[in-house]
Design brief:
The chain is an alpha+beta fold. It has 12 helices and 13 strands. The strands form 4 sheets. It has a 6-stranded antiparallel β-sheet, with helices on both faces.
Length: 399
């Protein structure tokens, strides 16, 4: 009923507002601030869908891109607390097949190598493995690797291909489908409504989906006609879009673990709150103290030798704005406070979840229709749009 009323209201708004008025709307953007005790929307503007004229709301679900990797890191640590995985174990023991770099066939690959982007993987051969295709075959392709050193010693290079491997290992270790595993380990314990590739999102969430547009105005993702009952997972040609026969531990790429989480910013802020609580020992049942925020901060403090953006990156966690470290293009706030979290960029969207551990506060955001930095997607770096958005939001918050 709520979804029907919302759609009716949006339709009436569209009739009442001329198309020219829609063209003057700013790109859909939401910024939400949080601390241990409160969550506060600061900026909520633009249209969730231009065709219907529906205004975006603070908790409308949106594809958050690579912040999905941070959520995967939390799930991995929770599964580690359950005693089902080890971050330094050979992932071949879980996959059931031998994962090795063709350039270093005797060197094991671990979750820690994959999550820190030091396994020697490359996205040159692509990182989406559709349902019906083989993850093992993708990793057997020499184009999926770099000849830069054995796993663990290979220099940092951001590669999305590691995420399907990590997610598949988590499936194999738990016996659970990745989307359901994330629901059990992260979303449900925190009271969050979210999903991956829309597989577990209900009709109400689908009705509130934020359509992503490129800076050219072209629809990039999650238009209404691309939501269920349409197929929302990558599927090989000739393969039915059917998850019933999927065997966990074979190819979790179909859930887009590198970027496919759909979640609203109010709910994403709850995940940020949970990370702050870990530092204070407030949610011992969520993560054991040994894997709380302080340990995660240490895990994020990987020295990458990069001088642009990814200067400190650990297990799918990033630190920005560390004063004593030279790092260009990472001044999102510029107040000298180090922040831990992850950025996101895809389909014309840029997003972030950033926590200031010393002050027990943080913010989450997304903005759309952003030209890709450097002329291509997933290149990293904060844009002028992001910096202006956060500056305006923090001004509203009195920061």
């Amino acid at each position: 009923m709520r979804a029907m009323i919302r759609r009716l209201a949006a339709a009436l708004a569209l009739i009442a507002a001329p198309a020219a008025a829609q063209d003057t709307q700013p790109p859909a953007s939401v910024v939400v601030a949080f601390d241990r005790h409160s969550i506060r929307p600061l900026i909520v503007e633009g249209l969730a869908n231009k065709e219907t004229g529906r205004p975006v709301e603070a908790n409308d679900p949106v594809r958050i891109a690579s912040i999905s990797k941070l959520i995967m890191a939390i799930a991995a640590l929770r599964l580690k607390d359950e005693g089902k995985i080890g971050l330094d174990s050979d992932v071949s023991d879980f996959l059931g097949w031998r994962l090795r770099s063709p350039y270093h066939p005797d060197a094991p690959v671990t979750l820690a190598h994959l999550m820190s982007h030091r396994a020697g993987l490359s996205d040159a051969a692509g990182y989406v493995i559709p349902l019906g295709e083989s993850l093992e075959a993708k990793l057997a392709d020499p184009a999926s690797w770099r000849d830069t050193g054995p796993p663990g010693e290979a220099p940092f290079q951001y590669a999305n291909l590691g995420s399907p491997v990590v997610a598949t290992v988590l499936e194999a270790a738990s016996g659970e489908r990745y989307d359901r595993l994330i629901e059990r380990l992260v979303f449900k314990p925190l009271g969050v409504k979210a999903c991956l590739n829309w597989t577990l999102c209900d009709a109400d969430m689908q009705a509130r989906a934020v359509t992503l547009y490129r800076h050219t105005g072209e629809v990039a993702a999650d238009a209404p006609e691309r939501l269920p009952p349409a197929c929302t997972i990558p599927v090989a040609e000739g393969q039915p879009c059917d998850l019933d026969a999927y065997v966990p531990g074979t190819n979790a790429s179909i859930f887009s673990p590198q970027g496919g989480v759909r979640i609203g910013m109010m709910d994403l802020a709850r995940i940020g709150q949970a990370l702050i609580d870990l530092e204070q020992g407030g949610r011992d049942a969520f993560l054991l103290p040994a894997t709380g925020l302080r340990a995660m901060y240490e895990l994020a403090d990987g020295r990458t030798q990069e001088t642009v953006f990814f200067c400190s990156y650990g297990l799918h966690l990033q630190i920005i704005e560390v004063p004593e470290r030279p790092c260009s293009d990472d001044r999102l706030v510029g107040d000298g406070r180090p922040r831990i979290g992850h950025s996101g960029e895809a389909y014309g969207l840029q997003s972030g979840l950033w926590i200031d551990p010393k002050n027990d506060e943080g913010f989450v955001y997304f903005t759309t229709e952003v030209p890709p930095p450097g002329g291509g997607e997933d290149t990293g770096g904060f844009t002028d749009r992001e910096k202006a958005l956060i500056k305006r939001a923090l001004g509203i918050a009195g920061k």
